[in-house]
Amino acid sequence: MFISEKYNLLQAKSTWHPFEKLTFFVAFLLGSLLTHNSVVPFLILVGISVFFFIQGLTLKDLLQIAALPMSFMLLAIFSIICIISRENFEAIYLIKLGSYYIGFSDLSLDKGIHIMGKAMGAMFAFYFLILTCPIDEIEYLLRKMKLPDLLIELFVLSFRFITILLSFSRQCYLSQKKRMAYLSFGSSVRALGMLVSSVLIKSLIHADFSHQALLNRGYKGEMKFLDTHGSLQVKRLIFPTILMIGLIALGQLKL
Amino acid sequence: MAYIELENISFEYPNQTLALNQINLSVEKGQKLAVVGENGSGKSSLFLCLCGIHYPQSGRYILDGEVQKCKRKDRNKLFTKVGYVFQDPEVQLFASTVEKDISFGAINAGMKGEALELCMNEVMAMTQTRELKNKPPHQLSYGQKKRVAIAGVLACKPEVLLLDEPFAWLDAQQKKNTIQILDDLHQQEKTLVISTHDINFVYEWADKLVVMKEGQILATGHPHELLKDEDLIERAGLEMPLVLQLTKKLSLDSTPESMAAFLKV
């Protein structure tokens, strides 16, 4: 199941127009990326988390969602904070390993925290968008932003068919596992190869049938759907726009 | 002239499998036709030719008095006349929500505004898919997917509806719902053509039965007559409907037309 569907409590925000949600997303994203201090990302982080909690997300859910990207981010930040040198340097914490000095300085720590803040803010902005917009609203936004039809159709079809392939792969894997296919390294590699090839064959056959089904419903190279979103009231964009300007302005201050 | 006329239709796949061999068939408007036969007997290939996805290499296909030239332009016109519901709904549903998926065919058929809204409402009411309209297709149960797949084809307003194994993998309740949809469509005088292995259903439901084997039609006629023919049933690899088996076993004088009628006897 996709993350946006698992926590679909937030998608109840269907009274908001997709462009309103997008403007909030852009406000949070630009606020995070254009800042010169760590206060703005912190405010964005707290603000979005509070919004999530009000909408019914628990702290456990939030930590689960953030765990994977956070772990990558912490590894990356560690490499920025940590300094390895042959020469001694002014540091908050320093250890000597052989002929090398390993530690972190004021400057590297500040830099690490600043980058981490920016990345976390941008990540939460992204979560705000995907947790409040169901997939058809994302598709609507892409269409309205005049992205090439080919890309949008690829996005729609990938989203739809990846679930089928995942479910098929899961069934195949279980069927192999029940027949002791993954007992040794050699048999695992062989079984995995067979799994990949059967998924590929399945996807080719499925693509063929799907093309036939599309033709049968009048597909002529362009996918047109019902537009279920009403017109956007410009006044609904005033608050997110002011928020965007405020966050960018606050981010320019040296705090 | 019948609504659908097939004259000596033959179709061969690129791998030289002869799927249809000299098929002759006529279907009247509003008829309930069932096509039965073993797996690989050519039922699906016949449907693909009828809806214009496959072009027969020889023979004539006449629909509503018009000879189908089997060109891409004709196929684009054909989809508003002949709709095909695939056996596996997974291949048919592709949009991000149920409502968008159903609207796809209707928009391609040229509907917009009020006409589109009317059509969507009518189709969703008939197939009981209104409450599913904002859901993505992969969150639906198999029976729901099947109903959405039927709704998506009905939205094109076809006169003829081809259904490939409409009851495959459905539970008893979902099967009843599907039969209800078929009955509603029959009342609207739509021509219904189904392929199925459910011989008991065919016996009770169909006006006309086509028995196929190895790409050929073995017999055509009313199911009450054809399904009494033990030799035909043996040759086609079918089985006798339960009502007929019981009637024979109990040596009843009359042959009931359905299981309900049998239970009354």
UniProtKB/TrEMBL annotation, chain B:
UniProt-listed Pfam families: ABC_tran
InterPro entries according to UniProt: AAA+_ATPase, ABC_transporter-like_ATP-bd, ABC_transporter-like_CS, ABC_transpr_CbiO/EcfA_su, ECF_ABC_transporter_ATP-bd, P-loop_NTPase
GO cellular component: ATP-binding cassette (ABC) transporter complex
Cited PANTHER family: ENERGY-COUPLING FACTOR TRANSPORTER ATP-BINDING PROTEIN ECFA1, HEAVY METAL TRANSPORTER
Family according to the record: Belongs to the ABC transporter superfamily.
Domain of life: Bacteria
Domain ABC transporter residues, every copy: 4-239
Subcellular location: Cell membrane
Record keywords: ATP-binding, Cell membrane, Membrane, Nucleotide-binding, Translocase, Transport
Organism of this sequence: Ancylomarina salipaludis
UniProt protein name: ATP-binding cassette domain-containing protein
Single Gene Ontology MF annotation: ATPase-coupled transmembrane transporter activity
Keyword ATP-binding recorded: yes
Principal localisation: membrane
